[in-house]
Amino acid sequence: MFLDVLKSKPFIFRVILVVAIITAVLAGIVYFFKPLIQKWAQQTLPPQRTPPENIQMSVTSFNSIPPDKLPARFPLDIPIEKETKVLHNDTFIANNQDEYSSRTFISGKTLEENYNLYKTYLIKSGWTILKDKNEENLKIVVAQKKVGQISVGIKKDAAKNEVIVSITLIHYSAFIPTKVRN
Question: In the 8-state DSSP scheme, what is residue 55?
């Protein structure tokens, strides 16, 4: 009976009806599987750590590192230019016991060369890219592994015609041996 009524309708009506039915079925499938897809995505990506809005972080320990050495917990294979002026090279421990290591230097490479170098390094070293900003005079890559996060900021100081690279590693306290923490 329904098919007889449908056959008597104009062709365009039948096409619209078929498209509407297909759309409804696909929407139902997406709606049904959405929680499963979200659960799968959460299992495959490492959890992002975002501190609560009202947390106040304080530094419990600060160490300045000589320019010829890498800060604590820096990956030993991270690309670091030789013969550069190091602006900051330090490590500090926050009140939540996460360890922050940072190195800022003036680079002899271009903005784009540094961006490509560090982004490629992070991907090849198994870091998951969380944020990637690629603008004309500012480039930032933020990545994460189970043990922590790393951010590489590269900016061009047009006034001095310098490219400044800042690398900061946050090593989560849960992965710092107790002997190192105390």
Answer: -
160 CB-near residues (< 8 Å, 6+ apart): none
Q: Which two tokens stand for residue 7?
A: 């056959």
Give the residue carrying structure tokens 């809005």: 53
pTM, two decimals, is 0.63
Which residue(s) pair with 153 in the sheet?
A: 140, 166
Summarised one tens digit per residue, pLDDT across range 39-81 is: 655 554 455 555 445 445 555 566 777 888 888 777 888 888 8
Over the stretch 140-167, which tens digit does the pLDDT of each residue have? 999 988 878 888 999 998 888 899 999 8
Integer Cα distance of 91 and 88 in angstroms? 10
d(C-alpha 163, C-alpha 106), whole Å = 6
DSSP type of residue 159: T
Q: Please check whether residue 170 is in contact with residue 147, taking contact to mean a CB–CB distance below 8 angstroms.
A: no
